[in-house]
From TrEMBL:
SUPFAM superfamilies found in the cross-reference section: Anticodon-binding domain of a subclass of class I aminoacyl-tRNA synthetases, Arginyl-tRNA synthetase (ArgRS), N-terminal 'additional' domain, Nucleotidylyl transferase
Residue ranges of domain DALR anticodon binding in the record: 448-563
SMART domains assigned: Arg_tRNA_synt_N, DALR_1
Motif ('HIGH' region): 120-130
Cited Pfam families: Arg_tRNA_synt_N, DALR_1, tRNA-synt_1d
Family recorded in the similarity comment: Belongs to the class-I aminoacyl-tRNA synthetase family.
Record organism: Fervidicella metallireducens AeB
Protein name: Arginine--tRNA ligase
């Protein structure tokens, strides 16, 4: 039962506030003696011109108190104490009935949401920043889908731009075909780095590259074929990673996809009187908004990154009529998106407001900021391999006889990395330290995975046990805390959507795992000699495993039954 909703509806009947407003005002007090939910009457006090505690008192005497143990007025707050037996029963039964759909809702039905994520650059390594975007985007996709939104996952591949001119020049001059077959991205990176080294000595190279890109944009065949080859080779490697991470996209429409949509865009910008010339380039002046101009076309007629983003947003709106158009891209690109969204707004598109940049911080690995320019990168395969082999080592210490150790280690290792990316507020930088990631204690993926496996093992042992459950016997504070957390699953998902913040789900699930550990370490389950209490506890264990499994799946992480 969604208590916030119930409370909000009951308060709405007695006030002039909207249910949504009330729901937003409702708090969950930090201390149990302040109730499970609290409604502050201060906002009402302004419109009703009465003291908050008088309003609280009036509400208290008239409100329908069904399902609550008691309702108190303390200092202008209306504190609700949920009836424990009811909450226990309703919550546990709901989880057991809904299973894989527990936590889900249909509030997003009929709404299309674009989640653009991952978007690596062709011919460059898929680096940890892209992994971050992949983890957050994939998770938002799943979180939104769980609430009925129709999501369209777009991988906006960086498959266009002047770097392809450089790569074409570099391939013709320096490529080692055999190395290209063996490990395309490494070889493409090598010659790309070489291009920059050589260009420092020979400035004409840059000009050559610029021309070759222009020819590519104009559709010249030789350049097209080379470009396609580079793209195919890169995608083959990226897809291996996506498979390993179990990530899927609905569309791979990347930057090149918009090439034939640029002319009409420029035409439209001209007609709307938005283009000005600046040093030969065509730009949208954004000085009124304290932003540098948005460059649409360079002096040689070539388009840039922003041009393609403008075309992409318009295309997406025409194609999907989106409710939201979400870009999961690092915060260093915040200004770029502000410029693009502002330009769309100036073009008269009201839906510019529905475009959202979901930024995230830097990933720092062994204190190095990762960049591809100098070839100073951590390759993602290697990162994941390392995580898996560390997990395997840990499993070997803990449970050397486990079947399918390698398979389990793969899931734990990859889950642990994803968990790390999804644990902190996304705007915060992530410092990647193995000891904090592959660890069965602490707030880690393996810790949550382990809690799940523990729960499953209890349930396996209880197979065949059959008794009616008496939920009113789950009386302890620890049991009730766990039930209460489970009952708040859906609210947490909705909150994660509101903030575009998968970390809300990640932290929530850490809380559930902690409460679960406290519960099963302190209360006898299998050895409980009261059958109806034992059944209630076992059902609580199962409700917990359902919650952990679903929450992890919203993060793109698979559970293991044994570890
Ligand atoms: N390919 C870009 C990069 O690696 C990210 C693309 C972000 N998406 C966009 N619509 N601009 O930096």
């Amino acid at each position: 039962m969604d208590y916030k909703k119930v409370i909000a509806e009951r308060i709405k009947e007695m006030t002039n506030l909207e249910t949504e407003t009330i729901e937003k005002l409702i708090e969950q007090p930090p201390q149990p003696d302040m109730g499970d939910y609290a409604f502050p009457c201060f906002q009402l006090a302004k419109t009703m011109r009465k003291a908050p505690n008088i309003i609280a008192q009036e509400l208290k005497t008239t409100i329908n108190s069904n399902g609550f143990e008691k309702i108190e007025n303390v200092g202008g707050y209306l504190n609700f104490f949920v009836g424990k037996a009811t909450l226990n029963e309703v919550t546990i039964k709901k989880a057991l009935e809904e299973k894989d759909k527990f936590g889900y809702s249909d509030i997003g039905n009929g709404k299309n949401v674009i989640v653009e994520f991952s978007s690596p650059n062709i011919a460059k390594p898929f680096h940890v920043g892209h992994l971050c975007s992949t983890a957050i985007g994939n998770s938002l996709y799943k979180i939104l889908s769980s609430q009925g939104y129709n999501c369209i996952g777009i991988n906006h591949l960086g498959d266009w731009g002047t770097q392809f001119g450089k790569l074409i020049v570099a391939i013709e001059k320096w490529v080692d075909e055999e190395a290209l077959e063996r490990d395309a991205i490494k070889e493409l990176l090598r010659i790309y780095v070489k291009f920059h080294d050589e260009a420092e000595k020979d400035p004409t190279l840059e000009e050559c590259a610029r021309q070759r890109f222009k020819m590519l944009e104009d559709g010249c065949e030789k350049e097209r074929i080379l470009w396609q080859k580079i793209k195919d080779l890169s995608l083959k490697e990226f897809n291996k990673l996506y498979e390993r991470l179990n990530v899927k996209f609905d569309s791979y429409a990347g930057e090149s996809f918009y090439n034939d949509k640029i002319d009409s865009l420029v035409e439209e910008l001209k007609q709307k009187n938005l283009l000005t010339e600046s040093k030969g380039a065509l730009v949208v002046d954004l000085s009124d908004f304290n932003m540098p101009p948005c460059i649409v076309m360079k002096s040689d007629g070539a388009t840039i990154y922003a041009t393609r983003d403008l075309a992409a947003a318009i295309y997406r709106h025409n194609t999907y009529n989106f409710h939201k158009n979400i870009y999961v891209v690092g915060t260093p690109q915040a200004l770029h998106f502000k410029q693009v969204f502002k330009t769309l707004e100036l073009m008269g598109y009201q839906w510019a407001d529905d475009c959202v940049h979901v930024g995230f911080g830097l990933v720092k690995f062994e204190d190095k900021k990762l960049s591809t320019r100098k070839g100073d990168v951590v390759f993602l395969d290697e990162l994941l391999d390392e995580a898996v082999s560390r997990s395997l080592k840990l499993i070997e210490e803990k449970n050397p006889n486990l079947e399918n150790k390698e398979l389990v280690a793969e899931k734990i290792g990859i889950g642990a990395v994803l968990f790390t990316y999804l644990k902190n507020n996304r705007e915060r930088d992530i410092i990647f330290s193995w000891d904090d990631i592959i660890n069965f204690d602490g707030e880690t993926g393996p810790y949550v995975q382990y809690s799940y496996a523990r729960g499953r093992s209890i349930l396996r042992k209880a197979e065949g046990f059959n008794s009616k459950a008496d939920y009113s016997k789950l009386k302890s504070k620890d049991e009730f805390e766990l039930v209460k957390l489970i009952s708040q699953f859906n609210e947490n998902i909705l909150f994660a959507i509101e903030k575009y913040e998968p970390s809300i789900v990640t932290r929530y699930i850490v809380d559930v795992a902690k409460a679960f550990n406290k519960f099963y370490n302190q209360y006898p389950i299998m050895s409980c000699d009261d059958d109806t209490l034992k059944a209630a506890r076992l059902n609580l264990v199962e409700a917990t495993t359902v919650t952990i499994k679903n929450a992890l799946s919203l993060l793109g992480i698979e559970v293991v039954e044994k570890m």
